Fold this protein.
Amino acid sequence: MLVPNNPNSVSWQMYADPMMWVAGISSLYLQSLHPKAVAGVVQNSNFKTDPFGRLRRTADFVGLGVYGTDEAIQAAAARVRATHRELRGVVDGRTFRVDEPELLLWVHCSEVYSFETVLDRAGYGLTDRQKDRYYAEQRFAATLVGLHADEVPGSRREMDEYFESVRPSLARTPDSELIYNFLHGPATRGVLRHGMPIYKVLVGHLAYSVLPEWAIDLHGHTPYRNATLRLRMLRRTALLIPPGLRRMVPPGHIRRAIAREGRSVTPSKARLP
């Protein structure tokens, strides 16, 4: 099985791009369209009182899965699986486990699909073969939360087929609307509160606007008309920040990987297979 925590993997190069933050938020909009998945989040998460907690924890786990050691990855995965085993949700009066394979697969596919497609629209520039290799690598990530690799889409074609099959079960719900509003302007205090208008314009609504058209239709809110241009401009601006400074942003997995393995493993498009 191809693995992402390899300096020569597509994932290793991709996940260093600054637009991964936009892609991560976009994936949350997409995930919220699954009624059971979003109910599990709303009913079990403290995102209202800790607005950036879930995003931070997700970013930490995703980053560790690419830049961490085998031992650290497996330990973190065991903690995630143990937490998920204890969580339950209720939809239409019926209780469900949040670690049902259907829900784990939806969350996984929403994440990796958003990472690939948003970076593609931002101008990252993967070839079709590199995109397929990326999805194949990310099957390993799916096994960390309890899925079987052979049941997870491992190419662009398989991912498209998955979304085509699951779309009839997706819907706009009060919970998805709650997530939409939250991601446009999390309630914050102190200095972060002053940055919320900038976040909403530069990231919050942009991340929504780069969803696939069918997902935007389901959400029912008007996107930016020039979303791709805005995304590319934001990426060009972010890339003006020296890589060393960008790597200082938490959770810092890339910085630690370079310190552990040496500068030869520094993520670069030139390393793409």
Notes: The beta strands are 88-91, 94-97. The first strand starts at residue 88 and ends at 91. Residues 101-121 form the longest helix (21 residues). The chain has a mean pLDDT of 91.
